[in-house]
Amino acid sequence: MSNPVKTEGRICFGLEWYATEAEAEVRTKEVRESGQRYNGGFYHGSACGREKGFDYVDKEHGPLFAVVA
Question: Beta 62-68 vs 49-50: how paired, if at all?
Answer without folding.
Answer: antiparallel
